[in-house]
Design goal:
- The chain has 184 residues and is α/β, with parallel strands linked by helices.
- 30% of the residues lie in helices and 22% in strands.
- It is built from 5 helices and 6 strands.
- The longest helix has 17 residues.
- It starts with 8 loop residues before the first strand and ends in a 9-residue tail after the last strand.
- The relative contact order is 0.21.
Length: 184
């Protein structure tokens, strides 16, 4: 259970599913479809969907690459958090948004597995949130040219270690898209 007081709600956190981030990413279409199905489910169940959108020198704000992929679209009432660092909490208003929604539990999806997803998961857990990664709804690009493992191995390793992540008074873990339960 979250260590944050009076924060009983769950939110779906959609991280950096932007044209320039997921273009060419491992199983891009399947991952985006899984994210879309979770967004629809969250909306049906009146669970907040919080969108995170990254910008930096390579991903210029308002450029086509910066835009959220065309298969997804934030609804008017849904929060959009802009960030410039890997951890979605760092130098953003994400904590304020989640606090205002009474959220203490996050279901995390998006990109890139080995950067913003990992940073955000660790940032959430360190800040007192329960943080669940949807194992088939995150992706990354191929960075083998720089010595990284292949994308499928990066994703598998992240799923493996996050499954067993623990912290006092908080829960972590992984779940597949079909098994996401926003009420638990």
């Amino acid at each position: 259970m979250t260590t944050l007081e009076n924060r009983p709600n769950t939110a779906l956190l959609v991280v950096d599913v932007q044209n320039g981030v997921v273009d060419g990413a491992h199983q891009r279409d399947a991952v985006v479809a899984n994210v879309a199905s979770l967004v629809e489910k969250a909306r049906r169940e009146q669970v907040p969907v919080v969108w995170v959108q990254h910008s930096d020198e390579q991903l210029a704000r308002d450029s086509d690459d910066w835009q959220i992929v065309p298969e997804l679209a934030p609804a008017g009432a849904e929060s959009l958090v802009e960030k410039s660092y890997g951890d979605s909490f760092e130098d953003t208003d994400l904590e304020t948004v989640l606090s205002g929604l009474g959220v203490g539990r996050l279901i995390v999806v998006g990109a890139q597995t080995d950067a913003c997803i990992r940073s955000t998961l660790h940032g959430a857990l360190a800040r007192g949130y329960d943080a669940t990664l949807v194992s088939d709804a995150h992706t990354t690009g191929d960075n083998t040219e720089w010595g990284a493992p292949a994308p499928d191995q990066v994703i598998a390793h992240t799923n493996l270690y996050w499954t067993y992540q623990t912290a006092p008074g908080r829960t972590a873990g992984t779940v597949t898209t079909k098994d996401v339960d926003f009420g638990a």
